[in-house]
Amino acid sequence: MSILNGKKIVLGVTAGIAAYKAAFLVRLLVKEGAEVKVVMTPKAKEFVTPLTLSTLSKNEVLSSFTNEDDDTAQWNNHVALGLWADLIVVAPATANTLSKMAHGTSDNLLLAVYLSAKCPVYYAPAMDLDMYKHPSTKATFNTLESFGNIKIEAEHGELASGLIGEGRMAEPENIIQKIKDHMLLGLPLKDKKLLITAGPTYEAIDPVRFIGNHSSGKMGIAIAQHAVSLGAKVTLVLGPSSVVFDRKSMKVVDVVSAEQMYEAVHKEFNSSNIAILSAAVADYRPTKVSAEKIKKTERTLTIQLEKTQDILASIGKIKEHQFLVGFALETQNEIENAKKKLEKKNLDLIILNSLRDKGAGFKGDTNKITIIEKDNKTTPFEVKSKDDVAKDILNHIITRIHA
Ligand code: CTP
After folding, report:
1. pLDDT per residue as tens digits for the range 238-265
2. Phi, psi values for residue 82, rounded to 5°
3. For residues 266 and 247, what is the distance between their CA atoms, to the nearest angstrom?
4. pLDDT digit string (tens) for 56-83?
5. Residue 312 C-alpha to ligand 1 middle, in angstroms?
6. What is the residue with the minimal CA distance to atom 27 of ligand 1?
7. N or C, which terminus of the chain has less Cβ within 10 Å?
8. Ligand 1 in contact with 350 (CB < 6 A)?
9. Whose CA is nearest to atom 13 of ligand 1?
């Protein structure tokens, strides 16, 4: 999944010949999964039509503080638009607009949106080579850099004037690549490999029956998805689960039984940096799996069970550099039992769910956790959605591994 997937982007288009390339840029951003709203300076409309850009972005294109075409003129709220954006990209960015950005001028909607925004701002200059080299333009770039705005260098090539040199707007593909690279740099789990287990396991009794549990897999899947958005490379070893999620953004290994989960985890563990085992693994499985469907001939039926391997404990024994996280689902002496588990299984951190807490547990969309660390530091959290709990868990791990 692209890091731009789901990102809300304001694309500022200013009045330069390269404005026609904004159409390609919109198309590529939409292809990456971003939601794009185009804001044009009034003069930019002479270089590319709002109709082209609104069709490609599937959003209305704005260029003035009010909707001129409308009898009942509406105010285009630049503050709301600035705050809506996860990032702003100004491409092409003319010397004129860049200078106004550097000096806080606000004589068009794009500049007002820029001044209202709190998100990262990228800009791709487009101008003639002498303008690009001018000390005044350089001073503008320095000022914008001091604001934290990110410049996407112009490229060398033929310019609208017919001269050859630096000043051509970077190609749309390159603009997108630079933005993606820059965004990845700031991600706390970049280059980290995460191994996550989730869901229940099913232990076969015969060809049609099994012993299972009510785990949905939602908690582990939420952790996996959030880890991806923080830049991690994720392998999710997943027991039978009906949750629908974006499988393409990670490596998903589907398993059924505890034994299969054990094999899959051991195959991946060595190359992982962090392992979070949230699966509700069956503790026991039938000693024998009947080859045929068991008939209801007897009045009672006894199935003998044997212990499955404890996957978490087994990797706790071989762990070296890895940061190891386990879950504990307890009904009594919660903290004490969780601490014992943390020690016995050689974990760095354990996440406690108490079945006595309302809103915690297997099936629902919420969870209530307490995080307990190796040094006994204990942090309780409120009831939250599983997505927010996933964020808390990963934030906690990140502060620990960077400590
Ligand atoms: N776990 C595992 N393999 C198993 C059983 C459990 O990897 N065969 C992991 C779970 O994914 C979870 C943690 O161990 O992270 C805690 O599991 P839990 O069932 O609560 O604890 P147990 O160690 O099985 O102890 P008990 O059943 O006595 O509470």
Report:
1. 999 999 998 988 999 999 999 999 999 9
2. -65, -40
3. 21
4. 999 999 998 887 665 666 777 888 899 9
5. 7
6. 283
7. C
8. no
9. 327
